[in-house]
């Protein structure tokens, strides 16, 4: 089996002006595509070629882990975005956020801070761990499943995610994704 670059759940220009078509041309069309291509090259002709992405992630190390994890992380990230996104979550997810963070505002501040202050390349996450919601950040390709946690929401904080549209202003990028783009229906579906 070889992995395929998934279709984006929206048109490449659908998130303009918050995330431009040019960003998708590079971030999706070059970066994500390269992770998939590298992953396939590493598993081709090996027993790993018959494994699922989750199975590969469980045991992989080094370059294989990095490319497999980046394929998972980017596929998950695209699903966390929507042209009709932003605002605040509803229903069961909103209740869980209030239960574990006190309020949406408190969660939002903690999540934005984790994303903005993460040193170097990585990912900010809302996860469930031991039955509770938590904010975490991971470096490079690392992901929640390696830490006993299940992802609900992520924001890519590698510079390639925001430099075209926001240059060095990572906090502005995080704020805009939260206010305008988060697909709370997808996030809630992961609960
Ligand atoms: Mn990226």
The proportion of residues in beta strands is 5-15%
State the total count of DSSP E strands. 3
Count of spatially separate domains: 2
Q: Helical residue percent? A: 40-55%
Q: Shape, please?
A: globular
- What characterizes the major β-sheet? 3 strands, antiparallel
CATH superfamily of the largest domain: Iron/manganese superoxide dismutase, C-terminal domain
The residue-averaged pLDDT reads 97
Architecture per CATH nomenclature, i.e. the level-2 architecture of the largest domain: 3-Layer(bab) Sandwich
Main structural class? alpha+beta
**Which segments are poorly predicted (pLDDT under 50) over 5 or more consecutive residues?**
none
Q: The CATH topology of the largest domain, please?
A: minor pseudopilin epsh fold
Q: Strand sequence of the main sheet, in spatial order?
A: 2-1-3
Walk me through this protein's architecture.
- The chain has 2 domains: 21-79, Fe,Mn superoxide dismutase (SOD) domain (Helix Hairpins, Orthogonal Bundle), CATH 1.10.287; 91-190, Iron/manganese superoxide dismutase, C-terminal domain (minor pseudopilin epsh fold).
- Helix 1 runs antiparallel to helix 3, helix 1 packs antiparallel against helix 6 (159-166) and helix 2 (53-59) packs across helix 3.
- The mean pLDDT is 97.
- By secondary structure, it is α+β, with helices and mostly antiparallel strands.
- The chain has helices at residues 21-43, 53-59, 62-79, 91-101, 104-117, 159-166, 170-181, 184-189, and strands spanning 122-129, 132-139, 150-156.
- A hairpin with a 2-residue loop joins strand 1 and strand 2.
- It binds manganese (III) ion.
- Manganese (III) ion binds next to helix 1 and helix 6.
């Amino acid at each position: 089996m070889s992995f395929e670059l998934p279709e984006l759940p929206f048109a490449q220009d659908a998130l303009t002006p918050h995330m431009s078509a040019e960003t998708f041309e590079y971030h999706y069309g070059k970066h994500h595509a390269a992770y998939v291509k590298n992953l396939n090259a590493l598993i081709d002709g090996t027993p790993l070629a018959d494994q699922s992405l989750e199975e590969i992630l469980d045991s992989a190390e080094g370059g294989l882990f990095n490319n497999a994890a980046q394929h998972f992380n980017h596929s998950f990230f695209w699903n966390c975005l929507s042209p009709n996104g932003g605002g605040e979550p509803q229903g069961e997810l909103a209740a869980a956020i209030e239960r574990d963070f006190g309020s949406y505002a408190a969660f939002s501040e903690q999540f934005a801070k984790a994303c903005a202050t993460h040193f170097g390349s990585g990912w900010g996450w809302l996860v469930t761990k031991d039955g509770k919601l938590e904010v975490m950040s991971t470096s490079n390709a690392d992901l929640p499943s390696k830490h006993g946690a299940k992802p609900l929401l992520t924001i890519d904080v590698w510079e390639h995610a925001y430099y075209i549209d926001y240059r060095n202003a990572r906090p502005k990028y995080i704020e805009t994704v939260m206010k305008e783009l988060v697909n709370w229906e997808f996030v809630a579906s992961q609960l």
